[in-house]
Amino acid sequence: MAQVKCQWCEAKDLKEKMTKEHPKGYIHLECLPKYIKDKEFKRIERDKKDKLAEKIAEIYELESIQMIPHQIWPYIEDIRNDSKLFGKLGKSYKNGIPYEGIEYTLEFCKDKIRLARKTVRFKNLQAELKYGLAIVRNNLADAKNHAINEKRRKELAEIQKNKSQEKIETKVEFKKKEVNNDISSFI
Fold first, then answer.
1. Helices 140-165 and 99-108 meet at what angle, rounded to 10?
2. CA-CA distance, 123 to 140, in Å (whole number)?
3. pLDDT score, position 50
4. Containing H/E element for 20?
5. Residues near 8 by Cβ (< 8 Å), separated by ≥ 6?
6. Which residues of the chain are modeled with pLDDT < 50?
7. Closest CA to 72 of 136, 15, 19, 149
């Protein structure tokens, strides 16, 4: 009976109590749901990161996402993980701004970034992207408020649309006053 190490919890156990789901080795049957959940989470994060890369390429007018320098991704991950002082203090894994939020903020700041690209002389593309990420980081709260206001505006428009489609029926009755001020008897 051979003992192997679980690739998820790193505990050694008998090979018969494990399954070969991991590409590098074996995983406990108890650890398998956690592994599958983590694998799905990472796939979703990778897809969101690809969409963010496409947005960066669109805003910076790059031919493809491969033209984005690899040195810029730690800065993006710094925003994603909500790190302070570039990962040296208070790093929290994937608890910062989601990739969709960064993408939305990029779209929100698109005009500011393009204006900076026209007015400021940058040494290279990496410096240009870092400057753009600084703009994004400074405008995260504004973009969030804008998104909230847009959501409210859409909800109010939907409510108004629903109200205009409803028929409003009101029943109004007038009561005649009994007036004893008849002046015909005086004439």
1. 90
2. 26
3. 93
4. strand 18-22
5. 22, 27, 28, 31, 32, 34, 35
6. 87, 89
7. 136
